[in-house]
Design goal:
This protein is α/β, with parallel strands linked by helices. It has helices at about 20-30, 60-85, 95-100, 200, 205-215, 225-240; strands at about 1-5, 35-40, 55, 90, 100-105, 110, 120, 130-135, 145-155, 155-160, 170, 180-185, 185, 190-195. It has a 6-stranded mixed beta sheet, with helices on both faces.
């Protein structure tokens, strides 16, 4: 059974990010793999041993501030324990920013949980980074690079520490800062990305990798992915890749 902890699903769910959980449920169900989602909201403690994958979507700045404070106060240690135990932690957009040390916008600085070494600063002078995006990624235990396609809309510029590995190389779009040429971050099972769309329905292969990684499986039963492959090709085409 794949056990997911959805962090703040009522507050951190813009751009239909809840569709990521629905896609994971479908991919598991088609394979006969059990699926369980537990929501953890403001003030709720989490058990790092009770879940295989922790998911944090994106939200508006005001909601992100509330969640950031709660993450640090009630969930930080558990998330560090989960990451240390090899659990998967996936953050999308605002969730990605909260995986790092902080997100500064104006005079406000939102604390992060520090699972990865990164800082995000909202640019007051530059434009928002908006549009279709495609990145080339080489994930652990995969035999070749793949393309992740999605949509980005963020004012923050995320700067990775010197020892951190980006999730992928930008083929089309802006990525972490608009100029670095890289997008997202990956450290073992901790993954952050700005890709919405939502992310996983546009990239079923990536959803399968997350399931396989979270459950510690060597392989997954193949599915008939003709429709998913066609949708992915269309997404790549929209991104100009």
């Amino acid at each position: 059974m794949l056990r997911i902890c959805a962090l703040y699903p009522d507050l951190m769910n813009i751009y239909a990010d809840r569709g990521n959980l629905l896609l994971l449920e479908r991919r598991c169900g088609w394979r006969g793999i059990g699926f369980e989602v537990t929501a953890a909201g403001l003030g709720d403690p989490i058990d790092p041993d009770a879940h295989d994958l922790f998911y944090l979507g994106g939200g508006q700045d005001s909601d992100q501030l509330l969640c950031a404070q709660d993450l640090v106060q009630t969930k930080r240690d558990a998330l560090h324990g989960a990451a240390a135990a090899g659990k998967v932690v996936l953050g999308v957009c605002g969730g990605y920013q909260l995986l790092g040390h902080s997100y500064a916008f104006g005079e406000e600085e939102v604390p992060g949980v520090g699972l990865v070494d990164l800082l995000t600063v909202r640019s007051e002078d530059g434009p928002r980074l908006i549009g279709n995006v495609a990145i080339e990624v080489q994930l652990p235990d995969t035999d070749r690079p793949h393309v992740l396609a999605g949509f980005e809309n963020h004012g923050g510029r995320t700067h990775l520490g010197a020892g951190e590995q980006p999730l992928g190389r930008v083929l089309r779009g802006h990525g972490n800062t608009g100029v670095s040429g890289f997008e997202g971050v990956i450290r073992d099972g901790v993954i952050g990305t700005y890709l919405h769309g939502p992310l996983l329905p546009k990239n079923a292969w990536f959803a399968d990798w997350l399931v396989q990684r979270a459950l510690g499986l060597a392989t997954l039963e193949p599915l008939d992915d003709a429709l998913e492959d066609a949708a992915h090709a269309a997404a790549r085409g929209a991104a100009g890749v």
